[in-house]
């Protein structure tokens, strides 16, 4: 089925991509300037950007990369600036804008144009007879949402959050769910790093990475798997560049040659900017096949074991292995049993390439392993992580300065929301504390994650979906099935800054509630309020918005959560929603009372330069695992894919990518500058030899069809065949356009993270 939101503003034929310029540099400045022009941002922009990611300033609304204690003069990147400008637009999606269009007409608009309507200004309620959103008062909205939620069983409601909202609103949102009687608190990380939260926990006892910024000053080598720094966490390029300049060696595994990991021109460095001098980032860039990291790391481990066999007692950290780990022998036996031809076939890399990479590992005293969606969004994602942890454990590269594992998180507060209780699993939530603090009876039963919530929407057992940020209808797998099921929900509520696709699949009772963004001034009782977030490296920062709010009717996320909670729950003198809304310090006191080890003196510490560190047990070699040690993982297969790719008739592996011009489902524009792809997102990228092998021609329109046969036909097209430097056997294209091709059932084994990087598809010409 063709995507109804096709959009090619320039009519440009994507052709063959060529981009050989470094990341950063003047190109990134132009990217910012274009959004600046287009977005009609307010004149405040310059002052807001100047405060971005500085102590006491505004923490970036885009990614979760760390905020250093000593920031650069401009501590923001191209994409962080775009996110800020997107939020500071002067365009307004007013009731008049909604009055001019039916929801059916809005559905004809491209996602890019939909968000371009601007900031939401009024609470809106869907009116089915006119097929329009009409303005309502906050009092009416809260009263009806409360009545609807009270009328259903608590477990029929799902409270989703995208990782934007601050720790204060998030803490109250989770409290609201538990006071109501459910743990249905799925989060964007269910589609993202849930693989990390679940599997790192069982492997090394923590659900997050072990590194802090200081480690990047002391590492000798970095092994980089499936994370596109140049587009998705560009500020991380600074410590990477500094590390390289001090002699650290970087090895990258990625099917795509991502510019940011090849070379970098520092926009903060006038000499690099003026003379075009750049820093080469990766010493070895290995174009692994999608899902081939298991085999690639198996190859590295075999090389390490061979080195130890050749010089016993000199290579492995035996003391560490013997005293701190479990499962070494069994895991290593399984790796030794793997044959090189199989390793080469699955990884797409030669033994020589892997030996060169292993030599870098062996030559380094301190090694950091970095990863992103390239490892997590696979059926056997647990094994991707398990193999990376195995590699690191062999030489004691976890829990000491300059070494460790570092997942690069997505949304700016995605990690923190989990920390303060947004969790469908109650294991790490101090329910007793909640009982004691609030006289409530929080349920112990595990709630629904994103995939389970979708199953509930499909089978009718879920009746309400509240979204604190985000755009689930676009972000989820199996989009066509989910979009069709959404309107059967009794209640849909979206707390959002801008209109998006999820608003166009209204439930029987549907509200879109406009909230303040992080850049906006948030005053309560005449006093400016701060909100807080936790970065990828577990540091917590305060953020204070200063921009004029888009309308007097926008409420803060915290006020909206509190308003809904008050309207839903029976009166309870310990649930002081109104007081908490007036003063966020009180909410931080609650967070501190609930999590005293990590958040003591929260109010006093939140504006500390560089943020305050929440600590990490694995970093101190305290292993909170079942075995009480760091666990080696025994590999059971050589690929992270859930399907086979051998044989003439084998399905292709679909990798869904983010462009450099989007933040998740928010499409800023149509330039994927760093990959040399311009003009259209309706493309399927294929290796040139594969195009010939399959008898296709460049530019030819084709349809992709899912190769999972479960009675559902999943197709997207037409997509223009575009030659691109990729390993054989795979195709790539853009998220979210290709989401209909990923079945809901095709997910990581332990965490149900959708396998967005490894779904099997066929090309239909
Ligand atoms: N500008 C911008 N910044 C963002 C976002 C955004 O959309 N735009 N999104 C935010 C969010 S929520 C997240 S989670 C992060 C996502 O950031 P990343 O983790 O970088 O996620 P992706 O861009 O989806 O894919 C990462 C890389 O994985 C590679 N890859 C695909 N399959 C494989 C594989 O099997 N093995 C290996 N080794 N590599 C593979 C791809 O080529 C790609 O370079 O970024 C955050 N930051
Ligand atoms: N095929 C494929 N699908 C994927 C992925 C992939 O790599 N491939 N990646 C997955 C990943 S990693 C993630 S995290 C999810 C993302 O899924 P989501 O987090 O659900 O989606 P976003 O696109 O980040 O949400 C964008 C919307 O958030 C709202 N918004 C923006 N700022 C704010 C704010 O400050 N407050 C509030 N309340 N609302 C705000 C705006 O209305 C905007 O339209 O997508 C997943 N889907
Ligand atoms: Mo994400």
From TrEMBL:
Signal peptide boundaries: none
Key word 4Fe-4S present: yes
Name of the protein described by the UniProt record: Molybdopterin-dependent oxidoreductase alpha subunit
Gene Ontology CC, one term: membrane
Residues in Molybdopterin oxidoreductase domain copies: 119-494
Keyword set, alphabetical order: 4Fe-4S, Iron, Iron-sulfur, Metal-binding, Molybdenum, Oxidoreductase
Molecular functions per Gene Ontology: 4 iron, 4 sulfur cluster binding; formate dehydrogenase (NAD+) activity; molybdenum ion binding
Needed co-factor(s): Mo-bis(molybdopterin guanine dinucleotide); [4Fe-4S] cluster
Entry-linked InterPro entries: Asp_de-COase-like_dom_sf (IPR009010), MopB_CT_YdeP (IPR037951), Mopterin_OxRdtase (IPR006656), Mopterin_OxRdtse_a_bac (IPR010046), Prok_molybdopt-oxidoreductase (IPR050123), YdeP_MopB (IPR041953)
Keyword Iron-sulfur applies: yes
Composition bias type Basic and acidic residues, residue spans: 1-11
Membership in a protein family: Belongs to the prokaryotic molybdopterin-containing oxidoreductase family.
Pfam annotation, one family: Molybdopterin
Start and end residues of each stretch annotated as Disordered: 1-24
Top-rank taxon, per record: Bacteria
